[in-house]
Amino acid sequence: MARQQRIVARPWSCPEQVHGRKAVEVLRPGDGCGIEADALVTQRDDVALAVITADCAPVALSSPEGVFAVAHAGWRGLAAGVLDATMEAMECLGASRVHALVGPCIHPECYAFTPADLEEAVALGGEGLRGTDRYGRPALDLPAGVCAALRRAGAVVDEVSPTCTACSPDHWSWRAERDRARQATVVWRDARSGR
Ligand SMILES: [Zn+2]
Fold first, then answer.
1. pLDDT tens per residue across span 123-137
2. Cα 131 from Cα 188, distance rounded (Å)
3. Residue 127 Cα, ligand 1 centroid: separation in angstroms?
4. Ligand 1 (ion): which residues have CB within 5 A?
5. Which fold has domain 2-105+156-188?
6. pTM of the prediction?
7. Rounded to the nearest whole angstrom, what is the distance from the C-alpha of residue 133 to the centroid of ligand 1?
């Protein structure tokens, strides 16, 4: 908690992530904790929206109208449509143009899938997920799949982190290390700068 408050001093909203589709609107500071959801959306400038990830992708979204969101997207969440749900929730609050940043997640180099599992993931989550690992074997390309889903839903992808959580020594990974710790991605708006 003390560490959180040094990053941004206000109650953090952090849902109970279930690899589902649900995006929840945060109406008051600290709301959304413990709710089963994989995305939080708000237009308030006194809240902090957070998701916890290891190998899944954290996505930060914002609009010029001041509506912003954070989402947790692994391939199951992509298949469930979590980014579509997030975009819909933002549009409901008046977002017109949505810009997205994709944070550190596992990259295809480290994410080999059996051909059958990859076909299943691609069938559910889109062709963007198809990749190859560092040895040329079939692999899931999560950042590409996330970008494809964001663009399909109408977002502009401004930045994709080049960091792979599985082989970066500075990031936690479940797949590579069975790490028990996680990254937190927190998004908030600075009322003074409007960003
Ligand atoms: Zn890697």
1. 988 899 999 999 999
2. 33
3. 21
4. 107, 109-110, 164, 166-167
5. CNF1/YfiH-like putative cysteine hydrolases (3.60.140)
6. 0.89
7. 9
